[in-house]
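Researcher: Structure for this, please.
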Amino acid sequence: MDLGNDFVCTRIGLFSNATLTVFKFLAGVLGHSQAMLADSIHSLSDGFATVITYIAIKWAKKPGDEKHPYGHGNIEVIASWMVAVILLLTGGFLAYSAVHSIIHKHYARPSGIALFAAIVSILLKEVLYRYTIYVGRSLNSPALKANAYDHRSDAFSSVGSFIGIGGAMLGWKFLDPVAGIVISFFVVKMGVDIVVENNRIIMDAMPSEDVIDGIKNFIEKFPGIKGQSDMRIHPVGREYIIDVSVFVDRSLTVAEGHRIATSLKETVTKNHEMVRDMIIHVEPY
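Model: Predicted structure, token format:
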């Protein structure tokens, strides 16, 4: 996939969030809906998260330097954590606001524009989620995947808004702030999920078995390689650095063994776009 797609995806998300935030805020004010106002605040936080993602992706593509020999890819992990913090704070605020309304019985009967805004938000945010998670998974981008989950949490919150607003319009006015509490739960859960996923990168967790097996099979079938062992895969943002020992015929010279290892490294990094670098130890078979 064209790596430029991450910028395109983020720009689309940023424009959509800005438009949706204004629309939902006006719908909440004009439609007298606390759930929709809470939903608009969530969309605003979603917009901040998208800005953070955009900046992180730009910085992550900077090449390595003297202080960062492995590059700047892990800034995507930092950005993902920032998105998670925004979601957790937003969820806490929404819960507090909804509980305050229930305690003090600040109920109002929403109008149709608030319900319409909820429907538009559900459809748009689900489309944004599916598009962003596709690009994020294709590029193995932690920041884009975190942003996708943020879109999904906004879609969930709009579902809660729809139920609360619809119930309040039918006469159960307490459902509007109750929907705010439901919304806050999903928002917080998304934040926790992002933290858990990105902790795997921080802890240098190995990728999936499919990725590992694919790289192992590629190495073992490479001309001149008799086998491999002690493979370790270090994640750096969306990319990997592989440390592996390979076995070659013991009768080869050092120069010949080095040539095979160099060729292997060039071929793997060319055919596996997620592999940034390889550290290869040549051993006698």
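Researcher: Any notable elements?
Model: The chain has a mean pLDDT of 83. The beta strands are 227-236, 239-248, 275-284.
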